[in-house]
Design brief:
By secondary structure, the protein is an alpha/beta fold. It folds into 2 domains: about 5-155, Rossmann fold, CATH 3.40.50; about 165-285, 3-Layer(aba) Sandwich (Rossmann fold). Helix content is about 40%, strand content about 20%. The protein contains 9 helices and 11 strands. α5 (about 140-145) packs antiparallel against α9 (about 270-280) and α8 (about 235-250) crosses α9 (about 270-280). The protein is elongated.
Length: about 290
């Protein structure tokens, strides 16, 4: 995971994601591509551009007031991107950072950048949604968790030092969860000294003993280091995961996703999407092999 992409809309949340990406890139010896998407009107004749700030040519416009406005918007965007690159050169001087600006809808533009830039990990900022906001609006983050071919790290708050000491992996530990072990090991390799909390959320107390047995067997079967089995009672997997994460002050959640049918409820993408925009700590989601 050395080639990182950070989509930015210049919000505080996207800045938090940028800071985390710089820390992670410094840890792994990686690089960061900073992406801003201009969602221009379909009538504007602007082409896509990308590259280092200061070395990019302005795209052609269709003329008129719309063209003037878009050129001004593009110039303002370049100034803001230049400010972020200058910040990165001060805070993470050994990390290579480049900028990219695309004109498209945000979701397709991010997916295009993942493909063309060979991205290993997307680090994206997200606002915490209420239940009503979640139903009415959704988010680009949730769409990305669902569609991205690479892992996605979602960041909602400032993280002074991204060096997780407590990693939380929630599942129901059915046989299909074994398919998530490779991704889980990848995260553990980044933070080898972190505690690994293996969590199953159950609806009733009498299910706790069986859940504990499943978790213990899973940890032993795969020889997971620093593993701590945990069972939490809650009516909802999402609220149970969030509550347990707060209880143990988890620094990172790791959740495998798969949008297709036939998998257990913990591996459905909808749960990962919701946790990614609701849980307090950063959330690392990845597709099952």
């Amino acid at each position: 995971m050395k080639n990182l992409l950070v989509p930015t809309d210049f919000s505080p949340e996207s800045h938090h994601a940028f800071e985390v990406a710089l820390q992670l890139a410094r840890r792994v010896g990686g690089s960061v591509t900073l992406l801003h998407v201009l969602e221009v009107p379909e009538t504007a004749n602007f082409s896509t551009y990308g590259g280092p700030v200061g070395g990019t040519e302005l795209p052609n416009s269709g003329g008129g007031m719309d063209g003037v406005f878009m050129i001004q918007l593009l110039q303002a965007t370049k100034r803001r991107m230049h400010g972020l690159l200058s910040e990165a050169s001060r805070t993470a001087p050994n990390v290579a950072v480049r900028d990219m600006v695309l004109t498209d809808r945000t979701g397709p533009a991010i997916l295009q950048a993942i493909e063309t830039q060979g991205i290993d990990l997307v680090v994206i900022g997200a606002q915490v949604h209420s239940a009503v906001e979640h139903l009415l609006n959704g988010s680009h983050t949730e769409e990305l968790v669902r569609l991205a071919p690479c892992p996605v790290l979602t960041v909602k708050y400032a993280v002074a030092e991204f060096a997780p000491r407590r990693i939380l992996f929630p599942s129901d530990f059915t046989a299909e969860t074994d398919r998530a072990v490779a991704g889980l090991r990848q995260v553990q390799a980044l933070f080898p000294d972190a505690e690994l909390h293996l969590l199953q959320v159950v609806e009733e107390e009498q299910q706790a003993a069986a859940a504990q047995a499943h978790i213990t067997a899973f940890a032993q079967r795969h020889g997971l280091q620093h593993a701590q089995p945990a069972v939490f009672t809650d009516d909802s997997p999402v609220s149970g995961i969030s509550a347990y994460a707060r209880q143990v002050q988890a620094d990172l959640l790791v959740i495998p996703t798969h949008g297709r049918t036939g998998l257990s409820r913990f591996l459905h993408t909808s749960i990962a999407e919701t946790v990614a925009t609701h849980a307090f700590p950063p959330v690392f989601t990845f597709k099952l092999a």
